[in-house]
Amino acid sequence: MCGIVGYVGPKPALTYLLEGLFRLEYRGYDSAGVAIQQGDAIAIRKKTGRVGQLSQLCQEQPIEGSTGIGHTRWATHGEPSDVNSHPHTGGNGEVVLVHNGVIENYASLRNELREQGYVFRTGTDTEVLAHLVAFELSEEIKMGADPSRTATNLKAVESALKRVKGTYGIAVLFRDNPGTLIAARLGSPLVVGIGKGEHFLASDASPLVGYTEEVVYLSDHEMAVLTADGMQLLHRDGGAQTPDVKVLEQASEDLDLGEFEHYMLKEIFEQPTTIENALRGRLDEDEATARFGGLNLDPQQLRRIDRIVLTACGTSWHAGLVGEYLIEEFARIPVEVEYASELRYRNPPMTDRTMIFAITQSGETADTLAAMRECKRKGHPTLAICNVVGSTIAREADGGIYLHAGQEVGVASTKAFTAQVTVLTLLALFLGRMRHLSYPAGKRIISHLQAMPDMLRRTLECHEQVKTIAEKYYGAENFLYLGRLYNFPVALEGALKLKEISYVHAEGYPAAEMKHGPIALVDEDTPSVFVVPKCNIYPKVMSNMEEIKARRGPVIAVACEGDDKVADIADDVIYVPPVDEYLQPLVTAVPLQMLAYHIALLRGCNVDRPRNLAKSVTVE
Ligand code: G6P
Predict the structure, then answer these.
(1) Ligand 1 pocket test target in 321, 337, 357, 413 with most atoms within 8 Å of CB
(2) Omega before 87 cis (within 30°)?
(3) Residue 616: which pLDDT band, with cuts at 50, 70 and 90?
(4) Percent of the chain whose pLDDT exceeds 70
(5) In what order do the strands lie in the sheet with 181-186?
(6) What is the whole-number distance in angstroms between the Cα of residue 315 and the centre of ligand 1?
(7) Is 162 a catalytic residue?
(8) 61 burial class (0-12, 13-18, 19+ CB within 10 angstroms)?
């Protein structure tokens, strides 16, 4: 949450800063701001609201200069307001900084700084950090250091950060040292882009696309000093580091809306391709198994595994639930799916044969990262299923599997979910073939997986029909989403999608379990969305549907093409192609994504930037 950008070079900084903030807006959009060095002062423009409003402000009050920093905010401490927007100023304006993260000991530091005469004007934890850097700078100056020297400013940042508890990604400008930007990270991501005679900074690689292809990801406790001509990388506790320069893999098409009105719809429609990409090169037809390049575990280690813990948050956690069913069915290995925010503070019994998978689109979710680190610290093999190449979790995991879904911009996850489920199916096949799964069974799974991109193309044909159904139900204030077995996690995910983007209350439940409480909510104004493709217990789900109808609850069903029986009971039916049970989540999730999208649109909500949410949750 919160996005940071920075620029040092010969060009007007504002162009990159604003464009970068637009691209990082998914990380938070409560307010936005920029600070640019103008001669011997630092000019600041900041405003509540979206980056577009900041851009408008910068047109009305132009700001020039070629060294600058910018920020788009997801509020943690202090309500969204102009004054609480970043950048924040320390001392008498000698320090200006932007911050992503949380300063946990801000209250005690603030008291201490107040006693030193520092005046606080905002409700943020970041202002404390700005004043703290200014205070440490004043201490350096008292000792005779020159504030126009980078070494002095670096020392001030270093000393301030040593006193801070919490997480940060920061970019700092010093009034008396123009043309220099200092960045540092602990827990919140930062990446430096190396240009020709210029340097860029960003919270993730997306702002750098089109500007440079050479990037350096900062690690925790690292600091970078950026000037037009150079980058110096240091460890916070002293000592120069050698930058590990990587080639940027992101493509600019990911950021192009093309024919679509919103990123969410574009990403829903990309799913046949993203599933194809997740499968590419990973199906071994000769051995009837899957293959992965980056697990970094030898077959003996994998054979030893007798328990798997999948840990994640949000939509990724739902993908984990599908993964649990898949791995237990194909590989007969017991699986637990843990909320990362719980796992990080629990101490569940795990043996040296337990393997951990962190599932994460962004690779930056603070809780998932912390849970992964805790398991790693205990010595468990810890792998990641991740979309963003070079993200913190991808880098810190012992190994893993990339989704290759391209950048997901919409805050509500869609294509990452189906890519995660696809990768988990491959993983289940792979682990299964090392154990009980027969060659013919492996072959069958491979051929079904190969057919999935086309099945997804066919599924997308329900779009117009879903739109019509959304028009009928968009006024409802409560929804139930019900499914069983592989479609229970899909019901949870369908309900989450609706909540996230349309602000309508929705609950996902195992269809039979609704008798134990949620059925009390059912009346003629509360639609139930049944995920009921043909499966082993199809008649049971149909009985659950009858139970809702008997209480006059409207029913929308997601069913297999050609299922007329369902049409006799449900008020509305969305048809998806018939696929094997274990692959159903890939097709049944799609109409639910579309339903949430259209209901949100009809209710006048911003589907790509829903209120209070952020795509990458880098605070716990
Ligand atoms: C946020 C996003 C969700 C996402 C969750 C986990 O809440 O809005 O879409 O599922 O974080 O994110 P991750 O990047 O770890 O999958």
Answers:
(1) 413
(2) yes
(3) confident
(4) 99
(5) 88-90, 95-103, 166-174, 181-186, 222-226, 231-235
(6) 6
(7) no
(8) exposed
Q: Is 615 a catalytic residue?
A: yes
3-state secondary structure of 390: coil
Instruction: Give yes or no for a contact between 553 and 520, defined as CB atoms under 8 angstroms apart.
Output: no
Location of structure tokens 């949870």: 492
Tell me what the mean pLDDT of segment 137-146 comes to. Answer: 96
Paired residues of 98 in beta bridges: 171
Q: What is the dihedral of CA 73, 21, 314, 186, to 10 degrees?
A: -70
- What's residue 359's pLDDT? 98
Tokens 């843990």, residue located: 338
Ligand 1 binding pocket, CB closer than 6 Å: 313-316, 360-362, 365, 368, 411-413, 613, 615, 617
pLDDT in tens, 87-102: 999 999 999 999 999 9
Mean local confidence (pLDDT), 130-154: 97
Distance CA 197, CA 11 (A): 10
Task: Answer for the pair 133, 220: CB distance below 8 angstroms, yes or no.
Answer: no
> Could you tell me the two tokens for 565?
């029986």
Q: What is the pLDDT of residues 267-276, one digit of tens each?
A: 999 999 999 9
Name all contacts of 538-543 with Cβ < 8 Å and 24+ positions apart: 540/484, 540/511, 540/512, 541/482, 541/483, 541/484, 541/511, 542/566, 542/569
Give the residue, by CA position, lying nearest to ligand 1 atom 5.
314
**Catalytic: which of 2, 313, 375, 560?**
2
The three-class DSSP label of residue 398 is: coil
